[in-house]
Design brief:
Radius of gyration of chain B: 21 Å
Number of helices of chain B: 14
Strand content of chain B: under 5%
Mean pLDDT of chain A: 83
Strand order of the largest sheet of chain A: 1-2
Low-confidence stretches of chain B: none
Number of domains of chain A: 2
Order of helices and strands of chain B: HHHHEEHHHHHHHHHH
Distance between the termini of chain B: 40 Å
Number of strands of chain B: 2
Structural class of chain A: mainly alpha
Low-confidence stretches of chain A: 1-10
CATH architecture of the largest domain in chain A: Orthogonal Bundle
CATH topology of the largest domain in chain A: ABC transporter involved in vitamin B12 uptake, BtuC
Strand order of the largest sheet of chain B: 1-2
Distance between the termini of chain A: 16 Å
Order of helices and strands of chain A: HHHHHHHEHHHHEHHHHHHEEH
Structural class of chain B: mainly alpha
Number of strands of chain A: 4
Shape of chain B: globular
Oligomer: heterodimer
Helix content of chain B: over 70%
Amino acid sequence: MSDLSKVVAPPRSVSSNKGRFYGSWIAAAIALLALPYIFSSGGSLTTFSLIGISIIFSLSYNILLGQTGMLSFGHAVYYGLGGFATIHGMNLIADSKLPVPLPLVPLIGGITGLFFAAIFGWVPTRRSRTAFAMISLGVAELVASSSLILRSFFGGEAGISANRTKLLPVFDWNFGPQIQIYYLVAFWTLLAVVAMYALTRTPFGRMCNAVRDNPERVQFVGYDPHVIRFLAFCIAGFFAGIAGALTAINFEIANAAYLGAMQSGVVLMATYIGGPGFFIGPIVGAIFVTYLLLALSDLTAVWQLYFGLFFISVVMFAPGGISGLLMKHRPLVRAGTLFTVLRAYLVALVPILTMIAGLILAIEIVARHTVNAGEDPNTKAFGVRFNAASPLIWLLAVALVIGGFVVARQTWRWVGKAWDEALIAAREKGFYA
Amino acid sequence: MIVTSTLNGVLYGMLLFLMASGLTVIFSMLGVLNFAHTSFYMLGAFFGFQISRWFGFWPGLLVAPLLVGLIGAAIERYGLRHVHKNGHVAELLFTFGLAFVIEEVVEMIWGKSPVDYRVPRLLDFPALTIFSTNYPAYKMFMLLASVAIFLALLIALKKTRVGLIVQAALTHPQMVGHLGHNVDRIFMMVFGIGTALAAAAGVIAGPALQTQSNMAELLGPILFVVVVVGGLGSLLGAFIASLLIALVQTFAVSMNGSLASIFGPLGPGNTQPLLADIWNVTIAQIAPIIPYLLMIVILLFRPKGLLGTRES
């Protein structure tokens, strides 16, 4: 037992670890500062800003999903309300010429998110698991429908807008150009990430994990799981509000789509795809999904279908998300047995890619016949030209899918075998995690 | 107005219960709330529409639920069952992703605008006249059909051997397995029948309501409210909640009063736009949010729902 615990959690050399810990934060800060000098086009600056916002939003969602075990379908409510409050706040500040600079404005969104999470959170957090998920969905629909009724605050379908340059300038920065907005977002992203990381290290963060794993035992220790869930919900609402505020500042507009079901769905998917089990997971997910959505919508008309299928395959085959999948290989890397697995992966990749190509081809053919019916059947998807009307292309798609599937099953067995061997070898050398 | 509203409310309630019953049975047995349940309802409506264009309405009523039931059973067998080992969150998210994909597929094949799904000619006449308002025969048919399915379900559950096993599996799935029944196959069957019921509701409701690619998204949250208000896993609770929510919402839609009209000159003038919004909104306008308000109020007093016994 003690042998195993030494292996799983070896005593750490404190000073070098601390150096690495702070070093990685400083490196992240420098990377954020340097990014605009490497990719200086306006488009990439906008993308980076969106990614930063998405990171805050996904991490705030992971306070619920990953750390406290609450699956919420309505997290965008606090994001959206934060955004609306920010727009109203910016208009108020500009109109009455209050001495508030723009970098402080996201706090308005955060406090609004906190406030509404405290109001709406008490009832859903009484329950856990499925019931919580359903109630959070109901609350989300309540707010989303109300936003169309209370037109003067939410501005109906058009939404409401503000002008960010009308606020007090800071050191000659009026926050008109995108580069200044990028630095504003980067600053808040770093701040929020550090704060949320610190939260996971506090006793409260540990109690959240305990509520996730065994709420009954938490009660025996003398805590109320409901209160802990509620507090976690409020904190998540606060950071979601900050993300919403940054979005509102970035686009200078807030509309009903901010707090809709789609927004809640995307943050859930981003967090889950990144992997809710690790702190880094939602960051990976936010970067990946934001980039994927931007890239896919350029490539094909039915990109949402691909995204949905991708999400389902992550749920089915990689339940720990991208970060979970990568972390599974850690013992192999440390034991040096990764190579055998990688070789098996490379072999398995060929039939799987064949199958995916066939699937994409089939979807694109159907899409060509239904979405753009009656147009020229010679079409182009993912940069490849083909004639969607010819029976040959149908045959090709079917052959690719079936052939790929049959071969993939066989190669997958090899992967399993290689994986088992590598893992056993790693365990023999004493690397368990 | 009261008679028509009651009829409409009961009709809407029965349709809701057709879906809520499938959802409840699936939840009780598999422990997973099928997020894609209303997507199967939508699939039913679109399949019914497509079959009605080729062969007519009545074959569609029979074939579309069968097809959707088969699809549902296949999804359980080849998808959900594999996700099961990854836990409840993964299962719920699998159905969530499924709902997303089904909506996209429907949108891809039938487009975003509503399709022209017509009431069969046989039933296209006013059935009764209530205070000079005609009540269409098709709505009477909807009501009768959903009541008939409800009764058939009740008899199948209470009087047959299969129903007995399903009932037993609701509360003691392990015990049923120990007794030598193939629980996996029962699960697949129940999932298939549950989705087929949802599809039947879709075929019946399709011509009267709008058959459109967002119909799953519109109904989904309300259905989950019904299940939560009734108490997760309780069939009777789901029945009461379906009727309650349907009646409340139907009556609300037909009312025009607002706070301003109730208090008349006693109310405050138009002081502030936000207050004015609240003051002037009619009951009919807030009808869409009433189910959610009802849910919150009921859960405040009964956290487990009306007849719920299980924590989750």
